[in-house]
Amino acid sequence: MRRSFRTFTDRAFTACALLAMAVMASFLFIVLVPILWRGLGAYVFQGTVEHRRMLMGEFNRGSEESLAAELKEVRQARAPVYQALEAFEKELAEMPASRRKELRPVFQSVRDGVASLLGSMPGEPLPALPRRIYGKTRWDQARHGARLILFEEVWEHDDDGSHRRLEPRKALFAGTALEPLFDLLEEKNLRRLMRPRLTLYARFLTDVSVDAHFFGGIGPEVMGTFYLALGAMLIAVPLGLIAAIYFQEYAKGGPTMAFLRSCVNTLAGVPSIVFGLFGLAFFINTIKVSPGKSVLAGALTLSLLVLPTVIRAAEEAIAAVPQSYKEGALALGAGKWHTIMTVILPAALPGILTGIVISMGRAAGETAPIIFTAAVSVGKMVKASELFVMPTPALSWNLYNLCTEHEAVDEIRHVQAGMAATLVLIVLALNLAAILLRARVAKRLKGG
Amino acid sequence: MSSGAIMRRKTIGFLGRSFLFAVTSVAAVAVFAIILFIARDALPFFRDRTSLEFFVSKSWYPSHTPPQFGAAAIFFGSFLVTAAAVILAVPSGVMAAICLSDILPFKARQLVKPVIEILAAIPSVVYGFFALTVVAPFLQNAGEWLPGNIEIASGVNALNASVILAIMALPTIVSVSEDALQAAGRELREGSYALGATRSETLLKVVIPAAFSGIFSAVLLGIMRAMGETMVVWMASGNAAQIPKPWYNLLQPVRTLTATIAGDMGEADQMSGSAHYHVLFVMGLCLLLFSFGCNIAGEWVVARQRKKLRGE
Questions:
Q1: Topology of domain A219-447, per CATH?
Q2: pLDDT in tens, B216-237
Q3: Taking a C-beta distance cutoff of 8 angstroms, is the pair B250, B38 a contact?
Q4: Which of A259, A392, B40, B211, CA to CA, is 20 to 30 A from A25?
């Protein structure tokens, strides 16, 4: 074969490999950047006066005086809106029937739009649902809400498919008492109605949700995830550690050990949803660890899932301890068990911790095993005393639930994003800790 | 030391060892308990119906009266997204592994490894969220500027699920094949270079054949990961129990075994057990058997390769 051709194929091959690597690395950014960026929006955003009103009303947080002063100004700014609505309602009653028939449904949707934008109407009884008491708490939502009032969505169908067109409503109400309302909702004026201000809502992480996640935070989910992951590790770590010690220090090989090892491999390959089925059939329906779903059942199921990972990580860490350590201890007359406890385990500890931390991240992120064993969609913060009997919300499950089964999926996009980002950050933090731990171990082993 | 003390010490040693052995066998006990209890809740399904309907019929109407449990379309959905994901992930994964083991300098490798780890650590439900909020809208609009003006009815379809599954399977495939390539050893490479082979020739004709069993296990692990994944396919595949027309059309929604188990368990009677409940366990049993099959195949190939390398 010609040499130039061979060089060319060699270069092309190298380029392909580098490209594959680059593509894979870029996936990390393609996936993480949008999730973290959107999730940031749950914590830092342009909060309207309604957000501050909600914080005061639901969590009794913020300064009462400044809120009262702000509300006074807002009320003044909003008065013309309500006046326009009221005046038009009277006007509507005196209109000719045909025009009334045309305008009434549109007016009704404008009125509903205003109520959802600004919150409950003054002079009306306070609604029961918080989502009807408070208006739009976020500036992006407020702008969207105002757009829904200002424009009517019209769908046109032709050969090319469907197109959306926005038709201004102002023209429809020209000359009526409602006309000034549309100017008040233009962006410049809307700012005076909503008073957006850059807000840091750090307690999104710990607050309970208000009215099915319309407001408030993700505290119960974070706690649920914490309990589940911690519980799983409490069960899996002792088991995994002992198994690793046995495999590395006591097992003499032979068919029994080969069989046990292949069982660990098999367990690692079981699909996560099958663990969920097993948890339901065994822990809940057969040995009845709890009357129904519970944190305990979920933690037990998760612990089986992470057991192989823990065993392998601990085994690797124990195997990495230099043989000379062990020989030194044995030469000093220490027994086998004594050597393991005082020499091998302390030396292997950072490596074992690395494995534990990574497994904990895995347990925190798993969804399928807890669907049937521990997770509920709406739930209060689970108390420490109820861990053995009560189910809990959890970040992973509730992220799925809010994305697909919630009644108003589009209105809580920021909560979904915040949940996803929080879950990712928890897992990333655990992994980062593991990476740093390992780097320290590598350094120490190198330095002797 | 008196003989009594020695006896006592031996007994304690034996008891301790037995205890360690007992704890170590928890994994084995768990595997058998999983098989046992999944099978126990799966078998009643076949008590009053033939298994043929389940595997052959395409009509999945579990809540009709009488219910119809034809899971052929669901099996096909699982097969389709897994196959597509593996076709996407294996070539790029193996190439990336080659890059990692033979092309990148040591320093760069140290930087790339954490990237793989983090990619593997991202929870599946977050990948599902990504599929739903980023990939699905993108796919939906992609039809317009693609050549041929393909109409994509919905962004949640088999293609979406496959792409995300491929991303999820990549870290497994890369790290396991990289280990295999490394294990092929320096002497093999140096021998090939000494004969005047280029790097691509060395890798393609010498290293990859030597590391074949490891790469094969990597592919199997990737398949297992894709087949057993629940959240992504549940959120991104569209969940329509149908065989796409034509069968390879990835732009139509499909439904997989895992998503069916996760989605239907809420409707099935969990406490006393109905046919709907049992059929989901049958699906779980199928998944379980599939993963066992992959494990055995992987071990068999590794054992065979070892024999071959020993020259038997």
A1: MetI-like fold (1.10.3720)
A2: 999 999 999 999 999 999 999 9
A3: no
A4: B211
Instruction: Assign A158 to helix, strand or coil.
Output: strand
Domain ranges of chain A: 49-195, 219-447
What distance in Å separates the CA atoms of residue A222 and residue B122, rounded to the nearest whole number? 17
The count of residues in chain A is 448
Show the tokens assigned to A312: 């392998």
8 Å CB contact of B230 and A35: no
Contact at CB, B200 and A416, closer than 8 angstroms: no
Which CATH architecture group holds B51-310? Orthogonal Bundle (1.10)
Q: Compute, in degrees rounded to 10, the torsion defined by CA atoms A325, A330, A336, A340.
A: -20
Query: Given the structure tokens 């424009």, which residue do they identify?
Result: A151
Global pTM?
Answer: 0.92
Residue with tokens 């008073």: A195
Tell me how close the Cα of B7 comes to any Cα of chain A, in angstroms. Answer: 16
Q: Would you mind telling me the total number of residues written for chain B in this entry?
A: 312
CA distance linking residue B129 with residue A429, whole number of Å: 20
For chain B, domain boundaries: 3-44, 51-310
Residue B97 CA to residue B77 CA, distance in Å, equals 29
Residues of A in Cβ contact (< 8 Å) with B103: 14, 17-18
DSSP state of A335: -
B-chain residues near A416 (CB < 8 A): 129, 133
Q: Give the model's confidence band at B150: pLDDT under 50 very low, under 70 low, under 90 confident, else very high.
A: low
CB B81 within 8 A of CB B227: no
Q: How many interface pairs between A and B have CB atoms less than 8 angstroms apart? A: 255
pLDDT tops 90 at residue A310: yes
- Alpha helices (H) in B100-237, listed in sequence order: 106-121, 124-130, 136-145, 158-183, 186-194, 199-201, 208-210, 212-228, 231-236
Determine, for residues B34 and A416 on separate chains, whether the beta-carbon distance falls below 8 Å. no
